[in-house]
Amino acid sequence: MEKEEAAAARPARNEQESHGTAWKRARSGDCDVNSGDLISHLADALLGTIISLLPTKDGGRTQILSRRWRHLWRSAPLSLEVLAFLPVPVFDRYAVPTTAVSKIISQHPGPARRFSFLFLGAGDLYAEVESWFDSRALANLQELDIGYEYLLASKGKYQLPQSTFRSASTLLVAKIRNCGFSDTVPLSFNFPLLKELSLHYVSFSGAFQSLLSGCHALESLYMLQVHATAGCLRVCSPTLRSIGFRDNSGEKTELVLEDAPRLERLLLPYCHRNDCVTIRVIRAPKLKILGPFSADSCKFRIFQGMSPVSSANSIHTVKVLALTCSSLQLDAVLGVLRWFPCLEKLYVSFHEYYQTHKKFEPQGDPLYPIECLQTHLKKVMLTLYMSYEKQVHLARFFVLNAKVLKKIEFLVWNDYSDELVAHQHSLLQVKNRASRDAQFEFRNSLFFIDKHVEDHIHDLSVADPFRQP
To answer: Which of 295, 318, 390, 424 could join 332 via S-S bond, C-beta 3.0 to 4.6 A?
Structure first.
């Protein structure tokens, strides 16, 4: 009996010894593949990249893992996120206080991958920031996120200190928030490598085009509540491929695509029915993705040249379109389709308005047919589809009139049984569909297109930013 107990205890002691040995090896940096520590076998350069992607505090804490890791933080590109105050405890994990910055950059030789800091007010910590940007650690910065706290930004009246763009020659990504650019402060912009630029709550008085002209490699631009003194933002850029634009201020705003020869996407997340926004396309010969915007808004307008977009002044380059619409104005969708005769994909997101008793049945005018339905439209996706009568009427219109249609997807809130799908097929009259190749799919999905679009404005690898992943 004693021998059996001793034999049973031996594997446990061996297991404890093996764990202890593995821990000692990990502390010394001497690990093998069989110990299960695969990370330590990665090259130092790769480990440095991983560390640079961690929050500031977590990156510094990797030094305690083993002797081998102690030098990696100093050799890895620095990622430094700073908050002037930490109002919520959760931020403590991701950012460091301003009092710790000087010590960090004195111990880290650089280069820096990312620097993020929001001022509390005009003049706040300007001297300290000057010294930070003068340091060797921030000399070749790649990503910059800077501005003022939103609630204290005084609607974009605060100016950024002159030292802000000291690393402009190496920046790849920049986000500027809650500040203003004035003609009274001469600024010379030169960003030879910058590819992504985000402007959040920024006001310009004549310096907007000067900023764009200084971005020689810019591919993606996102403007959130950006205003110019004259109320007009003119875009001239030979390199831009994607523009995101959002303005829910209620003020009249005009975005003019004056000369954008490479622009492919104009994304308009959260463009609501009451937004007073005018889009004017002067020259954007490659524009093929547009939206989402409200089809039933009388305040949102799109121009081509000096005239509103219409069936007589249509945009032939747009292939992918996203619209939002209430159940009260579904005929507006058909009106918009006449503007884009070469449309191939259409996304319609319904608003959550209650059904009314007003009769509605969309009709096509045989004298002026919707051109895209005849030869181009292949895919339709209806989001927040709840089988309201008017929604069914609109879907049925596509079924009966889209002659080259391949598929209609219905994103619904509840699972559809075979019986419910069969009932929908009957309502949609799929047996009489104009395209014999058309397929119909009902999927349970809470997909909010505006959030998805905003999250992918800068992601040029996504071929269709309206498509649910």
So the answer is: 295
